[in-house]
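Q: Hi! First time doing this. I have a protein sequence and I read that you can turn it into a structure. Is that right? Here it is:
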Amino acid sequence: MVVQEYVEKLRRYCSVEDIQVRSNPKKTGDVKAQIKGEDIKAMQHIMPKDWGASAIVFCIGGPYGHGQQLRMRADVTIRLSSMVLNHQIALIVLIEQLYRAWTILKGQKYHH
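A: Yes, that's right. Below is the predicted 3D structure, encoded as structure tokens:
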């Protein structure tokens, strides 16, 4: 898959973990409960070691966005596009841009 290809390319420059939280872990029709369930699961994956200056954590929201707990924890929020992207496309865009940034920083050619 495309994401895995870019993860492997990124590993040449930095350590990478791709952790994906299943959408709607509580399997509920209640949107607020769904957001809260995803929020709790996402926060369980962010470890105290990830809160320092040596780690960057990117969280891509599901169809209803992020919950309050995750939003409150974020130091910065970014928008990848003014278009609405589903989370699979957003992940591809993000990981490709991270790889592109590393190649630029290292003075390497991006388009081979």
